[in-house]
Amino acid sequence: MTGIDRAQPITFRFDGRTVQGFAGDTVASALLRAGQRLMARSFKYHRPRGVLSLGSEEPSALVTLGQGAAQTPNQRATMVELYDGLEVFSQNAWPSLAFDVQGVNDLAAPFLGAGFYYKTFMWPRRAWFRLYEPIIRRAAGLGALSGKADRGTDEKAFSFCDLLVIGAGPAGLMAALTAARAGADVILADEGAAMGGRLLYEAEAVAGKPAAEWVAEVLEELAGWPNVRLLPRTTVTGQYDHGTFAAVERLAGPPAPDRPRECFWRIAAAQSVLATGAIERLIAFPGNDRPGVMLAGAVRGYLHRYGVQAGRRVVLFANNDDAHRTARDLAAAGAEVVAVDPRADAVAQGDYALRAGAEVVATRGRTALRRVALRDGAGRVEWLEADCLAVSGGWNPNTQLACHLGAKPVWNEVVGGFVMAPDAVSDMAFAGAVMGACSTRDALAAGIAAGAKAARALGLAPVPPDPPEAEAEAGALQLLWQVAAPGRAFVDLANDVTVKDLVLAAAEGMGAPEHAKRYTTQGMAPDQGRGSNSTALAVLADATARALADAGTTTARPPFVPVSISAMGAGGAGKGFAPVRLPPAHQAALDHGAVMIEAGPWLRASHFLRAGEAGWAEACAREVGHVRGAVGVADVSTLSRFDIQGPDAAQFLTRICTNTINSLQPGQLRYSLLLREDGHLMEDGPVARLAAEHFWLFTSSGSEPAMRRHLELAAQGYWPDLRVRIFEATEAWAQFAIAGPRARDLLAGVLDALPELAFMRAARVGMGGAEGWLLRLSYSGELGYELALPARYGDAAFRALIRAAEALGGGAYGLEAMNVLRIEKGFLTHAEIDGRATADDLGLGRMLRASGGFIGADLATRPALVAPGRKQLVGLTPVSVGATLAAGGHLFVPGAPLDPENDLGHVTSACQSPTLGHAQALALLRDGRARLGETLRLWDGLRGTDQLVKVTAPTAYDTEGGRARG
Amino acid sequence: MADLIATDPLAALLPACHGAHQLAAAQPARITALAPFETKGLPAPGRSTARPGGITLWAGHGLWLATGTAPEASPQTDATDAWAVLHLTGPAPEAVLARLVPTDLRALHFRAGSVARTLLGHIAVLIHRPEAAPDALEIWLPRSMAAHAIDDLLGAMRALEAR
Q1: Of chain A residues 256-295, which have a CB less than 8 A from chain B?
Q2: How close is the nearest chain A Cα to the Cα of B69, in Å?
Q3: Is A799 on the interface with B (CB under 8 A)?
Q4: Largest CB tally within 10 Å, which of A161, A377, A621, A892?
Q5: 3-class SS shares of chain A: helix, strand, coil, % to 5
Q6: pLDDT band, very low/low/confident/very high, at A57 (cuts 50, 70, 90)
Q7: Looking at chain B, which residue has its C-alpha nearest residue A269?
Q8: A850 pLDDT band (50/70/90 cuts)?
Q9: Burial of B38 by CB count in 10 Å (0-12 exposed, 13-18 middle, 19+ buried)?
Q10: Which residues of B touch A258 (CB under 8 A)?
Q11: Single pTM value for the model
């Protein structure tokens, strides 16, 4: 029973050449069947490489998928499923895969040993960044990104379960089944396109039937349980605190609109079972990396699952009984097989030739294996013709996920690998090869035990099933890590690290595993050395005369397989970067020519462009004119509004604000300051007392999160005895500023009745059936009101207000005009309230009540905040007629050197004032109030401007304030 | 002056349907935010309860939202315009929300009458499984972010449909 469907041929292209495969094939299996053994060039030496394995551990057969913006590099040919029209390209080769110019690196290999970069490129020091690193980066490296913006989509998702079973081989399947039958909510994740693990790749029986059939039956039962979710094509990539796992799911098939390529899962599981099995390892012998050298289990797997015979003349080089199945199965399939086994007492398990007590010492063949040299126990060398060399040095259990939280695997001599001790990780059970249960029968039994253990931990009562009948032999093994013979024996194919590199590292004092890793780069490739780590540790142990069990391992960290950044950051591009908040009158503003800008999360009108206007400056000047000369209306719904209620609300606000709030009468407003605990100014805004126990506090747009935190800390933490409640009320209201000498005329026309309101007073009003509040305050310096209405009426109200304003010779105004109006008046924004300024710095010191008792009162009087030399708010006007001003420039005494110690301050806000007829700015200037009338040098290194300015009072227009109060 | 016309932030965007899932407006006529000093009789954290003429949802620390006639409780404030309420229905509304919401919404754990204060993408929302329609999930969004959230939700529905 193979896993491909020969009735469904699929055509794809490899380096432009059409290749035929079948449904169920991977790129690797289809290329192998088509006789394409050369698939890639290696990372460092550009050596020709074929496919080594059939899983996600593949170190060699890395390919690029797609072209242009869709180009995706470094995909494992063993994991990519075919679909019609798939475009596959080899990588790291120029001009072609078969003839790669940088293959000359291979000739220089004697000079490119471990630590080469550190030894060679140290001098001159500056050359590293400019010369060496760019050259090295160009020479080394794998596939490339296209440099074009990615147009594909990925997604992120969250999932929750009682039990996450990782790996759906014999152990994982039985664990999932046992727990599912007990009623646990189970997720079974496996990185293969089909579940079943090694059972899909072997010719063996489980429960008296072919293993793949048994797998299909178990999966059918699991799929029938409503409490089981199967996640094929999903690699669990990391384990994190509190039972959280990361997993990346590959979605099969051709790209389609809206369909993600990958889904990055975050899975929270109360319990987990790790059943990730093991991967086979190479033996380090000279020439063990040629195309045609493959892992023995992979050769078997390609035969049984994909119907691909990896060679006609096959040599098996293995130190264990399990691998002899490859010789047996390939011989049965018609290949000419010679098995080479270093064990003198090895016995053939089928109809193939056996060279017991022999080793492979060399191979030949440039882009494909042609010959293999054996050396028998007596030292005689024999050359064999071969197109496939199947190698097995034993199996490395996949313990990495268990180690992400700090647990260490332990050496197990019988398994010949590092395994996990039973309770090494809390709430995680181990099953199968990861805990040393390597035969199919042991794995099935361990799966049942792990599933039952997890179910019991969940408070369920599992009934463990009897293990199905299965093969009991794991196969004896005699450790063999490296063959002593001249030539380059590769340990880590992904990073081109040889035995010699590791021995050199040990000789140079880098023999500890973590040191050797960094010195040689072994285990630092995208596969994190899954296939090579134990071999490297064994070589190092040998070179440093230590026992392998004592030397320790390197640290496994997430992710277990490479995860594309686009999957981890899925949904974060474009509009997904931050939420957009639209005020209630957004559409009305757009319909009146508004040009929107981002103000925190909000979209707000920058200006309202009218026909014939060239740009923002012209529109802004007109809008300023509306407010100063007639009437303007602006949407200020985005201001943060807190609805504060309770018998102690006045007392609460008195402690929050620097001025006195409990003396406010219902219907009164007061402009207030809020300090941080450290005495600096945090926010300013009006407080309105709507009723005896009911207030509105307004703060700047987008400040809700920080202000809410501040207010709740005070209410819940500082003064829990105060009976006060805080509602966030921004969303419920639309609010509009109506400002200008004709504001009253406008309101008289639109309100049901215009109340007689003095400056800083508020009253209930009605407008066209809507009930709201009218507040008399001004941020423009003109006669001003703000009208608050329920948000649902915002759109209609803004349209009506704009119509009425236009009828009076005014119109809507946006943020640009608002900014000009307030700079002319010396009013503040967060350009001035920059977190370093005190109330006194900004000329508001008199608003700090002398009796104290408000947040920040004590620290506002500390010496550093009241000493001379602080930067104080001033106004600036240019000395030259017609000069412009911009924020960011720095102030100096004319003639003083442009040094930081002579820096007197900086421009915080600037505008071109149509009202004053010249540029006007606000600045924070050292001892500014003592410098009124001085001429200073304004230097702006960023914009390259340098000019003289005159220091003025912050308020440049209507200094008495009569217009707003009138 | 003529009567002002009320605008519904959902009207132009909903209902919408992708595959087997539907997203529709479910705006209550009136919503009152309650933060009373006396909380007896109000639903426990993470729960909603039915009242004659409406339901009350727990909505965060010391905060409840009541639909229909406002119950006797003080302090309270009208929050009708602050929230946009959506109904997500179909065979697996949890699977749609799994793309955006980092909270366990499995029916087993998030039973009918459950409320979660959580995130939908970047947006702080309430998710509610109504007693009256336990196969649906109700999403309470801040009005200003409704359009953004609906865009996210439709994207998640499309991605699920495209699988």
Answers
A1: 256-260, 266, 268
A2: 18
A3: no
A4: A161
A5: 25, 30, 45
A6: very high
A7: B104
A8: very high
A9: exposed
A10: 155, 158-159, 161-162
A11: 0.91
Cα A20–Cα A25–Cα A29 angle in degrees, nearest 5: 80
A698 has pLDDT over 90:
yes
CA count, 13 A, side-chain hemisphere, A340? 28
**Residue A100 confidence (pLDDT) above 90:** no
Question: Pairing between strand A395-397 and A278-280?
Answer: antiparallel
Q: Tell me the two tokens of residue A123.
A: 């001098």
Say how far apart CA A224 and CA B124 lie, in whole Å. Answer: 36
Phi-psi region of A368 (alpha: psi -120 to 50; beta: other; left: phi over 0): beta
Q: How many CB pairs under 8 A join A and B?
A: 148
Is the dihedral angle over the CA atoms A806, A812, A816, A818 positive or is it negative? positive
User: How many angstroms away from the CA of B103 is the closest CA of chain A?
Assistant: 8
* Integer-rounded Cα radius of gyration of chain B: 16
CB contact under 8 A, A257 and B162: yes
C-alpha pair distances (Å), A869 with each of A680, A742, A904, A957:
16, 44, 9, 27
Residue A233, both tokens: 């094509």
Contact state of B77 with A795 under an 8 Å Cβ cutoff: no
Distance, first Cα to last Cα, chain A: 93
Candidate from A260, A731, A792 with C-beta closest to B7: A792
DSSP A677-738: TTSSEEEEEEEEEEETTEEEEEE-TT-HHHHHHHHHIIIIII-TTS--EEEE-GGGEEEEEE
Per the CB < 8 Å rule, is B78 touching A158?
no
Q: How far apart are CA A454 and CA A429, in angstroms?
A: 7
What value of ipTM does the predicted structure carry?
Answer: 0.96
Nearest-CB residue to B121 (from A579, A727, A796): A579
A240 Cα distance to chain centroid: 15
For A705, nearest residue in chain B (alpha carbons): B124
| Residue-level length of chain B | 163
Burial (0-12, 13-18, 19+ Cβ within 10 Å), A101: exposed
| Surface of A (567-596) touching B: CB under 8 A | 571, 575-576, 578-584, 587
Q: List the single residue in A with minimal CA-CA distance to B103.
A: A158
Contact assessment for residue A97 and residue A38, using Cβ atoms and an 8 Å cutoff: yes
The shortest CB-CB distance from A259 to any of B108, B151, B159 is to B159
A156 interface with B at CB cutoff 8 Å: yes
Please provide the DSSP assignment of chain B as one string.
-PPPPP--TTTTT-SEEETTEEEEE---S-EEEE--S--TTSPPTTBEEEETTEEEEEEETTEEEEESSPPS-SSEEE-TTTEEEEEEESS-HHHHHTTT--S---TTTS-TTEEEEEEETTEEEEEEE-SS-TTSEEEEEEGGGHHHHHHHHHHHHHHHHT-
Contact A579 B159 (CB under 8 A): no
Chain B CB contacts of A601 under 8 Å are: 145
Q: In what helix (H) or strand (E) does residue A806 lie, and over which residues does it extend?
A: helix A794-807
Q: Looking at beta carbons, which residues of chain B come within 8 Å of A242? A: none
Q: Please state, rounded to an integer, the average pLDDT across all residues of chain B.
A: 94
Three-class DSSP labels, A427-480: CEEECHHHHCCCCHHHHHHHHHHHHHHHHHHCCCCCCCCCCCCECCCCCCECCC
Three-class secondary structure of residue A126 per DSSP: coil
Check B121 against A571: CB less than 8 A apart: yes
Interface check for A794 against chain B (CB to CB < 8 A): the answer is yes
Determine whether the interchain pair B156/A155 forms a contact, defined as Cβ–Cβ distance below 8 Å.
Answer: yes
pLDDT in tens, A361-389: 999 998 999 999 999 999 999 999 999 99
